[in-house]
């Protein structure tokens, strides 16, 4: 979580700290995607409401039972706080909390509505304490079953939260609407539910897609008159015009104007086979079941609207660090190529020899160099290796060896092309 949100906090001059109670069992079973979404919403809102000071994410153990543990996650900020009269309306998606001077806090309550719904799906609860001009504490209380570490390692259900950062590192930042139109990657989401609407747009943005939203079929058809979308998501059961009817009208419009068919993906809470068959019969291309897991959405998008692979060096980040002088950038990359080649060779050898203390030190050094030049994916891999070697976890270190080799090959190819 720190990796995912530290950049946004730093850009506002806010310190983001994380703390996990050591008493919490290392082997717990939970839906990492939903937990990620809740804590991500907490952190997004804390960053939005805070202009200076710090934000702290804490995980605490409240109670240990025989087969489960009751945990409390807290996100504390030193921001503007929420007026007392607005706390009662916080879980109403149609009411916007009061805007403070020079602050943009619109939409905060919708984030809480989403978080509350996700928490309830995991049998958890959310509480919020806030004091105006002093800060806010957002609290998630939830119980997770205790599992054997081996069960965790081999389970498809359990995915470490930090793995999401590694996955998203391979994705680009969402472009502007204008740029997305130019490259034909603009997505339209059609849903009458503000909560579902917001969640899906956030997920698509995190995967690198620019998105526009419509709250109904009529609005979507109107938008199609002026823009050509690369892909459309639609809810099936909407008032006035269902997703089935919307799809039928879009297909008629395409045929009438000799246009290429836009992939249309149905989003439905009904997982029955006949619903999927009805969607396909109506002219839709695929079906996703709500709530949509980020991994399922990513697979769907990679199939229907794949994006170009991001280069191993994030030049935008490099420019932020060293400026826009191309000569300076080239010199830094040449220095990085020379020094990193030696560091990578030493790290690979240390992994081969199982010298974990040396692995930890070398991975730490290489991580710092990678962060400096914007080699984000390689930096994350080095961090994983560093963390595993610090715990004397030879198996995990070895598991990242192939990822290290693959990313190094991409990096070398990129640097050699300069």
TrEMBL record:
Q: Which keywords appear in this protein's UniProt record, sorted alphabetically?
A: ATP-binding, Cell membrane, Kinase, Membrane, Nucleotide-binding, Phosphoprotein, Transferase, Transmembrane, Transmembrane helix, Two-component regulatory system
Limits of the Response regulatory domain = 186-305
List, in alphabetical order, the Gene Ontology terms for molecular function in this entry: ATP binding; phosphorelay sensor kinase activity
Task: Identify the InterPro entries for this entry.
Answer: CheY-like_superfamily, HATPase_C_sf, HATPase_dom, His_kinase_dom, HPT_dom_sf, Sig_transdc_His_kin-like_C, Sig_transdc_His_kin_Hpt_dom, Sig_transdc_resp-reg_receiver
The EC number of this protein is 2.7.13.3
Entries under SUPFAM superfamilies matching the protein: ATPase domain of HSP90 chaperone/DNA topoisomerase II/histidine kinase, CheY-like, Histidine-containing phosphotransfer domain, HPT domain
This one is known as histidine kinase
């Amino acid at each position: 979580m720190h990796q995912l949100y530290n950049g946004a906090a730093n850009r506002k001059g806010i310190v983001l700290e994380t703390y996990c109670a050591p008493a919490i069992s290392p082997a717990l079973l939970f839906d990492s995607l939903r937990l990620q979404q809740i804590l991500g919403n907490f952190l997004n809102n804390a960053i939005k409401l805070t202009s200076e000071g710090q934000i702290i994410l804490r995980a605490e153990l409240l109670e240990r039972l025989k087969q489960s543990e009751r945990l409390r996650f807290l996100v504390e900020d030193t921001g503007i706080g929420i007026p007392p009269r607005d706390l009662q309306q916080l879980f109403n998606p149609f009411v916007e909390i009061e805007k403070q001077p020079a602050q943009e806090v619109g939409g905060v309550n919708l984030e809480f509505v989403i978080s509350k719904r996700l928490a309830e799906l995991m049998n958890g609860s959310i509480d919020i304490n806030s004091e105006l001009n002093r800060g806010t504490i957002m609290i998630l209380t939830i119980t997770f079953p205790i599992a054997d570490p081996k069960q965790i390692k081999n389970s498809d259900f359990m995915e470490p939260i930090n793995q999401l950062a590694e996955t998203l590192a391979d994705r680009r930042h969402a472009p502007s609407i204008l740029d997305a139109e130019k490259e034909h990657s603009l997505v339209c989401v059609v849903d009458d539910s503000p909560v579902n609407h917001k969640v899906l747009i956030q997920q698509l943005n995190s995967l690198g897609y620019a998105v526009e939203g419509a709250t109904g079929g009529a609005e979507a058809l109107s938008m199609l008159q002026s823009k050509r979308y690369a892909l459309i998501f639609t809810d099936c059961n909407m008032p006035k015009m269902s997703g089935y009817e919307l799809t039928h009208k879009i297909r008629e419009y395409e045929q009438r104007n000799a246009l290429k068919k836009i992939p249309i993906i149905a989003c439905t809470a009904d997982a029955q086979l006949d619903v999927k068959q009805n969607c396909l019969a109506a002219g839709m291309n695929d079906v996703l079941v709500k709530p949509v897991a980020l991994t399922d959405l990513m697979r769907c998008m990679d199939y229907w609207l794949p994006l170009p692979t991001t280069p191993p060096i994030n030049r935008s980040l490099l420019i932020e660090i060293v400026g826009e002088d191309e000569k300076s950038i080239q010199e830094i990359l040449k220095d990085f190529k020379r020094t990193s080649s030696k560091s990578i060779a030493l790290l690979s050898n240390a992994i081969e020899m199982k010298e974990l203390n040396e692995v930890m030190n070398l991975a730490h050094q290489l991580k710092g160099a990678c962060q400096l030049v914007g080699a984000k994916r390689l930096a994350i891999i080095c961090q994983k290796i560093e963390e595993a070697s610090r715990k004397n976890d030879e198996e995990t270190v070895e598991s990242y060896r192939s990822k290290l080799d693959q990313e190094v090959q991409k990096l070398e190819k990129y640097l050699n092309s300069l």
